[in-house]
Design brief:
Layout lengths: L5 H25 L2 H15 L20 H11 L1 H8 L3 H13 L3 H10 L2
Helix pairs in contact: 3-4, 5-6
Length: 118
């Protein structure tokens, strides 16, 4: 039977924590301004729709007053899981989900309707 002294366990935990934090610091260092600029540029090029939610808008609501194309784009960009549900439902169910959005832009109701339309 192997017995370990309490100091060894504390040392092992300290080494594990230091390694985890060191890895995070290395990752943060490796994703410098050039990589961030490239990611921002590719995200901007992929967006296509200017009227996607403002950054300060809560993740519980969609931007009000969007056309159907804009609605679908915002779902794709901000609510990927709901967008996956939405993509797998029939066209008439998609029209119902969009009508729900027009009545109330709260994402919970939109998500619920999309899920129950499967």
């Amino acid at each position: 039977m192997i017995t370990r002294k309490p100091g060894f366990i504390i040392f092992s935990v300290a080494v594990a924590v230091a390694m985890a934090l060191g890895g995070a610091a290395i990752h943060a260092r490796d994703t410098g301004p050039m990589q961030h600029a490239a990611m921002d540029a590719s995200a901007g090029a992929a967006s296509g729709v200017e009227r996607v939610a403002a950054p300060q808008q809560a993740r519980t609501e969609m931007t009000p007053g969007l056309t159907r194309e804009e609605f679908e784009r915002e779902l794709e960009v901000r609510f990927a899981g709901t967008h996956m549900l939405y993509q797998s439902i029939p066209e008439e169910a998609k029209a119902e989900v969009y009508a729900q959005y027009q009545r109330d832009n709260d994402i919970a109701g939109i998500r619920r309707l999309a899920a129950f339309s499967l």
